[in-house]
Amino acid sequence: MFKLIDKSLFRQQCYINGKWENARSGAIITVSNPADGSVLGSVPDMSHEEVTAAVETAATALPAWRRRTAADRSQALRRWYDLVISNQADLAAIMTAEQGKPLTESSGEIAYAASFIEWFAEEGKRVYGDTIPAQQPGTRIVVTKEPIGVCAAITPWNFPAAMITRKAAPALAAGCVMLVKPASQTPLTALALAELAQRAGIPKGVFNVVTGQSSVIGRVFTQNPLVRKISFTGSTEIGRRLMRDCAGTIKKISLELGGNAPFIVFDDADLDAAVRGAIACKFRNSGQTCVCANRIFVQESVYAEFAEKLASATQALTVGNGSTPGVEQGPLISQAAVEKVEQHIEDALANGANLIAGGQRHALGGTFFQPTVLCNVSPDMLIAKEETFGPVAPLLRFEVEGEAVRLANDTEFGLAAYFYSRDQARVWRVAGALEAGIVGINTGLVSSAVAPFGGVKQSGIGREGSKYGIEEYVETKYLCMGGL
Ligand SMILES: NC(=O)C1=CN([C@@H]2O[C@H](COP(=O)(O)OP(=O)(O)OC[C@H]3O[C@@H](n4cnc5c(N)ncnc54)[C@H](O)[C@@H]3O)[C@@H](O)[C@H]2O)C=CC1
Ligand SMILES: O=C(O)[C@H](O)CS(=O)(=O)O
């Protein structure tokens, strides 16, 4: 369990239309701690009818919320931001308990999540339109931006707070209302955010959190015509399914999906900086992020030195329960996640790769896994073709720049890419050639509320954060005034 300063942040009911609700059937989904399997609590397993009712009450809340001034909505979001920050320790404790990440990372994620609320509290006041010189006499053309309406978000377990505020903050700032379905593994963080939204005075029905079977809730969100926008973060497989299911009612959709990030180390790189960047990029959240380095390409002449340094830094990572001070690597989210990591390692070793750090389940048992480095990995191995989503760093070799770029781009994904070089001409060449929505240059950490986060190819559609993020929640209307 976890100790909270404010125990009322521990919520086990859905937040719908300003009320805390159980499923009428009494059905529940238990929530457990991935570090030790202990049961933390439970949340309702809402029915199709109950989720439909939540959509309908959100729709009734829309007119009053969209009529409020942007400044008024901004003040409500600012109050929410202040409450998230002032309750950061409790929110981090809840997150570590249900997701497993170290407290330092959970606390960092709460600050990151809050930064989206702060950012969009301001961006909502800058949703500008246009006037356009008309070609017809006596005519005036005005372009306005209007809130899309009822929006739904389906969010993953790996960032239980930030993936919610990255969607809800721009939606609410733009004048939309939102229903969130958090991952069944990590609903408690979402419900604590709802508790704080209620305290911030965000009106009933404007921000709602529903829990239950993903297929049941997904069906309501994708097929109910009242829902005009879906924003999803998760696997490409589910994103594809949601995109298909939204076609029936032509909904707008934002998709932040899987990745297979290349991390390229050129011979002119600062190798120590590259090692630090690779550790940060690969092992954040125990490798369970969509922007983790999934393939590390090292130029031949510096391969041995980089591999030795990376293996040493990887072996120094401390593994344990995320609530223990100093722990840097928590458990994976599930046994299935561990099995996928083992499958990738076994396939690589069977096809000629070598272990130079870790490689096995951790002595702590459960879903703890040793931070791992493999060398002599080749592009045809599973670990290079699929998103591992675990603490395994596969090292591949290349001779020349063009080969590195070709190998890096040889994937259906295009979310993040990274490279280390101190050659300015090379930096501009490679940054332009990489097929990714996000490129980290001499850094392994790229996530920020002020920057547009999103992918190309099969890593998704749309951008979150930055001035672009609010565009996902507005419609453009053109007013043509004649007879003047
Ligand atoms: N882009 C990203 O940040 C993330 C990518 N992933 C990728 O997805 C893989 C599997 O992880 P999962 O958590 O199982 O991802 P997932 O895509 O299955 O789940 C993500 C969210 O979608 C919901 N969901 C699942 N099936 C649904 C459906 N039919 N209708 C509506 N909602 C549905 C889940 O309940 C969860 O809230 C990971 O190994 C990783 O490769 C996972 C999480 C985040
Ligand atoms: O889904 C994810 O993995 C996050 O989007 C990564 S980040 O925003 O925390 O970098």
Please provide a brief summary of the model:
GO terms for molecular function: succinate-semialdehyde dehydrogenase (NAD+) activity. Helices cover 38% and strands 20% of the residues. It is built from 14 helices and 20 strands.
Provide the descriptors you would attach to this structure in a database record.
alpha/beta; Aldehyde Dehydrogenase, Chain A, domain 1; Aldehyde Dehydrogenase, Chain A, domain 2; 2 domains; 6-stranded mixed sheet; 14 helices; globular; binds 1,4-dihydronicotinamide adenine dinucleotide
Topology:
Elements: E1 14-16, E2 19-21, E3 28-32, E4 39-44, H1 48-67, H2 70-86, H3 88-99, H4 103-123, E5 130-132, E6 140-147, E7 150-154, H5 162-174, E8 177-181, H6 187-199, E9 207-209, H7 214-223, E10 227-233, H8 236-246, E11 252-256, E12 261-265, H9 271-283, E13 293-299, H10 300-315, H11 335-350, E14 354-357, E15 372-375, H12 382-385, E16 392-398, H13 401-409, E17 416-420, H14 424-433, E18 438-441, E19 460-461, E20 474-481
Parallel strand pairs: 7-8, 7-10, 8-9, 10-11, 12-13, 12-17, 13-16, 15-16, 17-18
Antiparallel strand pairs: 1-2, 3-4, 5-6, 6-20, 11-19, 14-15
Bound molecules: 1,4-dihydronicotinamide adenine dinucleotide and ligand LO4QSZO4.
Residues 158-159, 162-163, 233, 289-291, 447, 453 line the site of ligand LO4QSZO4.
GO molecular function, one term: succinate-semialdehyde dehydrogenase (NAD+) activity
Protein name: NAD-dependent succinate-semialdehyde dehydrogenase
Domain Aldehyde dehydrogenase: 20-478
